[in-house]
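Hmm, what's this shape?
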Amino acid sequence: MITLFKTGAYLADGAELIADDADAAAKLKRRGKTANRGAARQGTITHGILSAHNSGSERELKITFDSLASHDITYVGIIQTARASGMTRFPLPYVLTNCHNSLCAVGGTINEDDHVFALSAAKKYGGIYVPPHLAVIHSYNRELMAGCGKMILGSDSHTRYGALGAMGVGEGGGELAKQLVGRTYDLSYPDVVAVYLTGTPRAGVGPQDAALAIIGAVFRNGYVKNKALEFVGDGVARLPVDFRNGIDVMTTETACWSSVWRTDGAVRDYLAAHGRAAEYRELAPKDVAYYEGAVVVDLSKVEPSIALPFHPSNVYTIRELAANAADIFAQVEKDARETLGAQGVALNLGAKLKGGGIQVEQAVIAGCSGGTFDNLSAAADILGGKSTGNGAFSLSVYPDSQPTFAALVQSGAVSKLVAAGAVVRSAFCGPCFGAGDTPANGALSIRHTTRNFPNREGSKPGEGQLAAVALMDARSIAATAANGGRLTAADEAACGAKPTTERFFFDRSIYDKRVYDGTGRAEPDEPLVFGPNIKDWPRIPALPDSLLVKVVSYLTDPVITTDELIPSGETSSYRSNPLRLAEFTLSRKDPAYVGRAKAVQAQESARQAGGKPDAELRAAYRKLAAAAAGEGLAGAAIGSAVYAHKIGDGSAREQAASCQRVLGAAANFAREYATKRYRSNLLNWGILPFLVADEGALRLGDYVFLPGIRQAVLGKADEIKGYVVRDGADGVAEIALALGALTDAEREILAAGCLINHYRAE
């Protein structure tokens, strides 16, 4: 079904993938081509788009985007950062959607206060304001912003518009703030991997099935991490555009950097249907294109699949799961104990084995991945004339935009869904991050959404509440619903799955009547409207000459996600209040973190006030002095740090870093950073992203002294020497640290203490 090349690959005439081995030159010659990697690297679609947006060198890119996009968890902090950095207007189109906190029912008025703030900002600075319930962020951008050859930067990790020929990049808010103050997005030229699609999906197989198959093949081995994916091959033309969109948005879960697809008449028709025919142009690789890797996907062999807790890469075919459910569930439960054991809860999927099948309590089809017209039309076709039953099982569907909802009403799909027992709701991203449809304790929810990380469904393991989410395609979810919650693959003959033939009609007037579009029409005299929960960023100190950091959280999980660093769900309401939100940092993974971090912050406050260090700190000072490692210690600032094996998988939210910084964090120590976007967030908030090879070199409670750290950062030191002070141990131990590749601008931001300080100084 899926094959990964062990070498790079040439793509000849858009049709033949040729492994970069000893036979490559001969195979290319038979086609009248030559094997020239350097020239062929410029033959990719990716190269053409990046070159058109780059003001830097061929290898060190400086990208300016065509538009920006944020939602109501992220835009307040971004605008506040950009304001503090000198922004007076939005210099490019900026879409502000309200699809994350629109249904979150905690926090008094603060969610709607954020929406009012966003509308006032759109008027003052010249932006696009999309009111609550009207569209989820990525659907609006697909419908009205993405065009062939464009680049869009979004403060959401699933910013992906590659199926429409636009490269979408999901990053933390700092990167958007840079664009808002006229700076560039800087990165080294990424490796490009071809995803060669062939074959035709069979009836009952949907985009989530194909996406999960790809994720399962490439995530754990890091095959495409931080790379650009380029979808090519004869199979592309056999997929409707909504099917392509559904695969593309899930590429985030492969850990790739961005994605783009070759375009064709189907994309032209899609854009024309949305009133944007002028945005189309054919994008295809040149006669010879070179890729650093290749993933070959035979769509005809993709089966209805399920991603079990707690990651989209934990993939099985539904047929495989049904045949081996007891063993597979036992393994998932074992993995869950290792992940959640410290929180005193256990996953019990074995309880779902009933009557020879697997019983599910809840199903959801929602958001940018699930709530599309084609997905919901297919679900309606399967459920037409059937019943979801009147037991514990429930089904909720969320069309991804009001125009999609209107088209589904017009086609009759909504009537079929409602008549079967489904509840139809408004455009909302909540089920994707734990702010809607939280299942009961112990329940299993199947969802056509983007993620199934721990806590992502809204449960609170630290309080004894634990539910499980499995990802599936809308078609198999509908087949399961038609079977009363008994897990059912949509390719089973009895479910009646078939390709949808419904035609989509896009009514642009729905947006014209409600969306405020002030692009290019900033009104400087328009006041910003601040609710009582919207606060400015606190003062962040510059990087000192020397630094003493204490490890206040030591995390040994295989990977730490941004959801664990700063939980989603109800905490999202506090995203506009940095100090209040920081109280939730690591609350579901290491509840003692906040208290420990504040204790270190108090030590630094006392130092600045000229007070005496506490007994623990005095002991650390004595050991460093005795080891002749205390040069510069007298004026060293004190900060906290987190250690993790691998950290930062998941969301682009900058709060995963800023909340640490607000509590006085100065560093992260890790063997690996899971994503570029998390590491970028650390850099933009002035947190040193140290790499440490030996996990045993550090423990919880250790102090690490970093003499001359400011000069080491600015002087581009390859290795940074530190000294570890451990309670109960004699003397100190040296530790070798690295910061990885840094641009000059990133070094200056670290030295300034954060992005705001850097731009304010300029």
